Amino acid sequence: MSNLLKLCQTISEAQDERELRSQVLPEIGEYFRAKRYGIFFFDQLLTNPKNLPANFQAAFSLEDNPFLRYLVERHTPFNEELAITARTWQLICPRKDHWHVMGGPLVNNGSLVGVIGLTRDLGMFAFDSQNLLDLGALCLHLSTWITKRHFDKVDREQLPNQISSTNRLTCRELQIAQLVARGKTNAQIGIELWITENSVKQALKRMFRKLEVSSRAEMVAQLFANTKFF
Question: Is 168 in the same domain as 58?
C-alpha cells in the first residue's frame, strides 16, 4: 500500500477532531515535507474573529488573501504560482518559513467550510504539480470525514425552539439568515462566511422556496420573531 493510500486510510479512521489534529495532521505535514501546517475550520474562526491576531484576520480576509479568493472561486488546491506569481507572494508575505505555500479546500455539502494549509522555508523546493494532485486526493478524504463526523452535527440546543423544531434550513443557511437579519448585504455575507456573493444569492433563493416567503424581511420575521437568537 502506498504512503498516500495509508494516509487516506488514517484520515478515515480518525475518531474526532482532536485525533485529526494531533495524529493525522502531523503525518500530512511529514508526507509533504512541510515546515508548518494547519487545518482551519471557518465556523470556529467566526465564533470570535475579533480575538484573532491581526495577521490571522488578514489571512482569512477575501480582500487581503489571494489564496482564499482562489479557494472560494474554484474549490481546488493551490500553490503560490497558481493563485499569484511566486514573486508577488514573496512581496505580500516575506516570512522565510512561508516562502512556499500550498493549500486545499475542505468542503461539506458543496460549501467551503475550511482549509488545510502547508508551508516550506526559503531554500526548500516549491510545492509541485504532484504535490497538488496528492493534496487534492487528501482533501476529498478530509471533506468526506468532515461531512460524516463534524459539520453535520448541528447544536440545536443553541437555536430558538421555533427553528430547532424544523429541519427546513441547513446550518449554513441559518448563518446566512442571521447575517441578513443584522442588515448585511450579500457581498458582506460572502466575505464573512468565505463564500462568493453569487453563492449567497443562490442560497437565499433556496431559503425563500423552503420557507415559502418572497423577501428578506419576511424570512427574518418568520424565523426569528420574538426570539433572543440575536
Answer: no
- Nearest-angstrom CA–CA distance, 133 and 118: 14
Lowest-pLDDT range of 10-19, 76-85, 117-126, 193-202? 76-85
Minimal CA–CA distance to 44: which of 198, 175, 140, 227? 175
CB 78 within 8 A of CB 86: no
In CATH, what number is assigned to the domain containing residue 172? 1.10.10.10
Residue for grid cell 468526506? 144
pLDDT at 46 over 80: no
* pLDDT greater at residue 200 or residue 111: 200
What gap in Å lies between CA 209 and CA 183, rounded to an integer? Answer: 21
- The residue-averaged pLDDT of 62-84 equals 80
Q: Look at residue 230 and tell me if it is in a domain.
A: no
Rounded to whole angstroms, the Cα distance separating 155 from 106 reads: 21
The predicted model scores a pTM of 0.62
CB 23 within 8 A of CB 14: yes
